[in-house]
Amino acid sequence: LQDPHNYDARLLMAQYTEFAGEFITGDQFFKELLREFPASRQRTAITFHDTLLSMGRYDALAAHCLRMAAAHDDAPSTWTGSLLLAMHLGRLGPAFIAKHRTEFSRLDPDSLRLVRAQAGLNDGKVTTALAELRHAFAPPVNGNLVIQQLRMFLRAGSPADAEVAWTVNARGLDAFDRQLTRSWIDHSLGYSSLAGLEFASLADRPYTAPTLDKLVATLIMQPDPESFRHLHARVLRGPETVTVQTAGEMWLAALACHATKERDYWARTCAEQFHLDYPRIKSIRFVSLDNRQSDTVPYLVNVGAFSRETIMSLYWRSGPHGADSSAKNPKDLL
User: Fold this and answer.
1) CA torsion, ordered 47, 53, 59, 61, to nearest 10 deg
2) pTM score of the predicted model
3) What is residue 304's predicted lDDT score, i.e. its pLDDT?
4) Which phi and psi angles does 57 have, rounded to 5°?
């Protein structure tokens, strides 16, 4: 590079190097940017995260998220959530924790217990994982960590534990997240009608981009055609403007919920209004992480404008746990 002070050029070079398969050099470029451009640290860290995720380098991704969470300077609970996802995708267990014990020692106790629980789940030790998850959070309760805890209880097949944790920690969530997470639990307990009412109540309110993202993410993780069609009708009623991101995410939710008519409607909307021609697929093949196939998550997340919340929910359903979109009982995928 001609100008070592040209941040944008160096960031592009770091990405290009990764995509060229020169991982050691690319990783070093990113680490140098994190060190030399502190004002752009967040942008660098997110770009590095997204590059590693798109390349399927889950061990390196987990190590990066761990370093960011341990630094305690940039939304550590958010980075903890990204770390848990990377561990899920890479099936990283206790050996990963042992390899990075120094960095893990810098995590707060609540985050560390979630990480140990995820490692236990990846290692098939559900009882050990549940024991870690049942520890009470230290006050003040962090809402992001509460949401991760509830999701992990549900993924571990223990909605009763999730219900207990929700009762204890719901005060740490805002009103929207409190009701949304309650709907997850009721859905997983088999109270489908009640969960549908809770979801519909949230969908009927005026929405913002972040709240719509959370509703779409819920439908991806807990597919429910009736709830999707309720949200579909609500979005069409307005008065909120349908953006390119709204249309794309509704298309993804329709795919996840096998809502054929609505899927085709949102595909046409994306093509006619936003000039985006999405793949002509009938469902998402969550069991594969092959980015060369148009019906897999790694391929789909790169074809449109989707929120981070939506992308993360797609990846949580993907990969080693075999959360097939055609699963007969997908209620505990959260």
Assistant:
1) 20
2) 0.91
3) 87
4) -95, 75
